[in-house]
Amino acid sequence: MLDALLARGRAAAEALMTDACVIEAVTGSTTDPESGEVTDTVEQVYAGKCRVQQAAPTANDQRVGEADLLMLTRVLQLPVSASAGIRAGHLVRITACVHDPDLVTRTFVVRAEFAKSHATSRRLGISEATS
Fold this sequence. Notes:
Blueprint: H1 2-15, E1 19-31, E2 38-53, E3 59-64, E4 67-78, E5 91-96, E6 107-113, E7 122-130
Antiparallel strand pairs: 1-2, 1-5, 2-4, 3-4, 4-7, 5-6, 6-7
């Protein structure tokens, strides 16, 4: 009975995931010998449907070097069965958003991993630095 209830809950949660994202892990970096520009090398960890939520209106001011940044926090929801292995530090890029096109191409960093036994979706705390 529990398995059937959990399956229905997961199906309902996934029905709300109308956005799409790509999640990547930074695996190293390369340096262009001509320009000296350093570029991260990445490995795709997940690509598929998602849902971006704002759990609470939170933002933190942070100073990085001489720049003042506003760190915005959100919650990313993913299908449980297809999203194992996502960890803090992975990069999230929103590739499609049906109801808020302003989210498309925005990049977030996974900051928190939430887990529970009977989850209807995988929830991740993500943040975005804005200037």
